[in-house]
Amino acid sequence: MAYVSMGEAHRRITEYLNRFCGAVSYQDSPMLCRLLSFSSNSPSLLSLADALNVFQDASSLIRQSDKFSEYGEILAHLFRSLQSYRVGNLVEAYLAFENFANAFVQEFRNWESAWALEALYVVCYEIRILAEKADKELTSNGKSPEKLKAAGSLLMKVFGVLADPYLVFFFLKLYGKGPKRVGALYVTCQLFKTYFKLGTVNLCRSVIRSIETARIFDYEEFPRRDKVTYMYYTGRLEVFNENFPAADTKLSYALQHCNPKRERNIRMILKYLIPVKLSLGIIPKDELLQKYNLHEYMNVVQALRKGDLRLLRHALQEHEDRFLRSGVYLVLEKLELQVYQRLMKKIYIIQKLSDPARAHQLKLEVIAKALRWLEIDMDLDEVECIMTILIYKNLVKGYLAHKSKVVVLSKQDPFPKLNGKPVGS
Amino acid sequence: MNRRSRGSSSSSGSVGGASDSCRRRSDVPRNRNNDNNKGGDSADVSFIVGTCSSMCPERERVTRERLRDLSVFERLHGNPTKSSSDLAVKKFCRTLSAADVQASDVRPLPVLEETLRYLLSLMDSREHPFEVVHDFIFDRTRSVRQDLSIQNLASERVIHLYEEIVKFHVISRQRLQSCSGASISSMHHLNMEQLAKTLTTLYNIYDVNRKPDYIYENEAEFRSLYVLLHLNTSSGVMGEPLSLWFRKLTSNLIKSKEMCFVRKLLRSYRNGNYRSFLRTTASEATYLQYCISEPHIREMRSFAVECINNVCYKLQPYPLLRLSQNLMMKELDVESLCHECGLEIRTDSDGCIVLPTKQTSFCRPKEGFKNYDLIGIEVESLLCEDT
Hints:
The complex is a heterodimer.
Chain A: H1 6-25, H2 29-36, H3 43-55, H4 58-64, H5 66-69, H6 72-87, H7 90-110, H8 117-140, H9 147-163, H10 165-175, H11 183-198, H12 204-213, H13 224-240, H14 244-257, H15 263-279, H16 286-291, H17 298-306, H18 309-318, H19 320-326, H20 329-333, H21 336-354, E1 361-363, H22 364-373, H23 380-392, E2 398-401, E3 406-409
Antiparallel strand pairs in A: 1-3, 2-3
Helix pairs in contact in A: 1-2, 1-3, 2-8, 3-6, 4-6, 6-7, 7-8, 7-9, 8-9, 8-11, 9-11, 11-12, 11-13, 13-14, 14-15, 17-18, 17-21
Chain B: H1 58-66, H2 109-121, H3 130-150, H4 156-176, H5 184-207, H6 219-229, H7 242-247, H8 251-254, H9 257-271, H10 274-284, H11 287-311, E1 318-319, H12 320-326, H13 331-340, E2 346-347, E3 353-355, H14 379-386
Helix pairs in contact in B: 2-3, 2-4, 3-4, 3-5, 4-5, 5-6, 6-9, 6-11, 9-10, 10-11, 12-13
């Protein structure tokens, strides 16, 4: 921390106060954003923090002027947060910022229009980031991290303010459109990020319900970037709940509308979209996997193409941690049945080449042998069981003559494609 | 430097951290020695320390004696108006708020341990039908849990208590199956509900104050029960999809024998592989795991019958003997299962009992909780191994 004289500290604080009040008076949103972005670590904010730590009694400065004291509460909390942030007391910084945010949101409600929406975005962003930092500090001191959870509640409150139907109605009447509600999607996305990080994903449900059922929201109004993020998170929720058609729709939307230059984001979307597509029988090209560095899926895709059950199991084991953490492990495990189907098809094709007249009869013994080549030991009872399931789920068309220990395939289309529908249950 | 004057124009009168609007919600029990408790923070709930030295607070016992509200187990020499401190056990009652509770009504940990020991000793009582025994222990263990939670206790001894209570619910589940009566099915339902609640609390306590990479002695087994309760994604017993739940497990939990076992079961279940499901259960399940798997064993068996009926060649009816081996059941039980599924069985010309296939009358059997034995597993000996 640099040395600052009393006089200089006084000057810096007053300058900030003037800028803040000026921004509010002239509805200068970009200025206000700059004044609130702690985590940007801008030199001016850092030097302000140093000044505050030297001066110690900024509240008196605020009270001296009517212009400043109008926002006394907001500024006092903001200053305290900045001071704590500067000296590395992140828990204190978060707590004070929470108070600031509460007070700020109250003011925001009173302002006539949504001029400060961008600034509110900044506040929401900072809430989450500061909470994450605070939790790191708590964990490193052996305490339980709980600030991110509190941040979730706070963001929920902000969301409530923006989604407030009365507020929206009021603005609709006065101004024809309530631009404030447009911010709801941004806040929602911050909420999603928070909940996903906390693991309390079920809390997203009530938020989603507000967005999707309330006819106040005209989805088209929302900025594209927010829509992509929204679809990404709700798509991931569908993956957790294994609603594959819905997951496909949402994640595909996100992919289509995502800025092609944002490769990191595209990779994130694909990470979840690929298992979904695989479950629907759609296999991505290797080039796609290579371009976005999704090598963990390469063996999975290969196993599906070749009917190689051993390779699938091996791929799942190799990347077990990664797949479990992202929540796609169970989805990939279920691909086993499709791999079996592919294997059966291969056996059928080979048989057709050597003995076309009897190709449509798959002896259980032959299947067991094929599995043994793949180093999978299965007795005939289990082979019969697998074939029974494949036929029942319409991955194989035909019937099982158990006495003769043979599967008789239908002459037409014995291995129906999934055609974009998940395996029948 | 100006001194801060009294009567500040700022409405919050902010001084230090005392007026933080941050409220800490303690849905997770924490040790009372947690440094986060700042003395001046009015939003903090301070936890009661119980002082009741017997299994039932004196004033409750006296009241219930007067009102003749004593369970058969609490009556001294069968007298419905007289109990004793050796027999009376505090009843569960929904308290409206922690503020209404007095320390003299709450039992400290050693008393709770003694209480639970006593309650569980009644499980072998032959004097009364099991439903009555279950009902009493069900209610009184719920009260034990209540006392634990009001005092916000969380330690290895507490973990042991919760684990014993989970075991009670599981064993009850098995024994209620041989009981009859109109209320059995609702008893079963309530029992499963409390089982889920006890497990949830137990998991929270495992997580609290956890040392990194440490898992408790029985934690892997008790965590595995969650998976078994959620094999079917559409029945959200405890609410969270499994994919999400697995994300939170530590690496050594995931690699534990018990978790690997249930994950194998999960894979078989989701792929419909009834052979592997039944075989794995028979060879690797612990007592608790087996009991919780029973509804799914039943489900897999009905599913197998459905598939076989659907898929097999009509001119080759499926021998029941074969079916019973595949489903690891007694032949008589298979017959019963087929009937439950609305399917007929026949005796063929060689005198073998067979299931004709492609019957159109198949229907999923009703949700029952009675189960057929799993051949290949000795359930009672498993129970002895575990205890």
